[in-house]
């Protein structure tokens, strides 16, 4: 039995080496800014807030070429706060993100492998999907109302960036993630009759600085 397990383990290692497949974990900082479609509401949330991203990653290098593919499963926290000092608006976008990037690598030295990358990212929003912004009174109805930040169910975005792998294990990269669709919407909710209308939507773009370790 031990001999069989040893053969299986050696076979798997040989396949992994042949395929040049590496696994690891990475984490880092999100610097986020939520861009609203309607500038009339930009005072609510247009100041960048730090967040974080963390999760496992896998890198596949295509043999005998400088190209490869990487994919990750990341827990991602982004946020914004009001640019108006009189408001205390703080909203969050909590999601699971699946980026898939095409890489082009080049080695300036034996110890460092540099790369550039780009690719789509698919996000699934989780956490608190209905967040309070501000209360007030409707101008036309006189009813008490609230304005709320409501997350959409999913997002799609694009990554572009550069990075390096030091001594085959230490991963460093910086990238910009720009959204194609809205991460959430600002709703005005009438607290008397329960009606709601969308005032504007917001895309959550982020600059990311990530460190990782490849096994």
What does this structure look like?
8% of the residues lie in helices and 66% in strands. It has 215 residues and is mostly beta strands. The relative contact order is 0.20.
The total of beta strands comes to 12
Ends distance: 27 Å
Structural class: mainly beta
Q: What is the overall shape?
A: elongated
Question: Radius of gyration in whole Å, from Cα?
Answer: 22 Å
Strand content: over 45%
Low-confidence stretches: none
Instruction: Assign a percent range to the helix content.
Output: under 10%
Count of individual helical segments: 1
Largest sheet: 12 strands, antiparallel
Reading the helices and strands in chain order gives: HEEEEEEEEEEEE
What's the average pLDDT? 87
Keywords:
12 strands; 215 residues; 12-stranded antiparallel sheet; mainly beta
Strand and helix layout:
Elements: H1 2-19, E1 21-36, E2 47-61, E3 67-72, E4 74-81, E5 90-106, E6 112-126, E7 130-137, E8 144-151, E9 154-166, E10 170-179, E11 184-190, E12 196-214
Antiparallel strand pairs: 1-2, 1-12, 2-3, 2-4, 3-5, 4-5, 5-6, 6-9, 7-8, 8-11, 9-10, 10-12, 11-12
Brief overview:
With 215 residues, the chain is mainly beta.
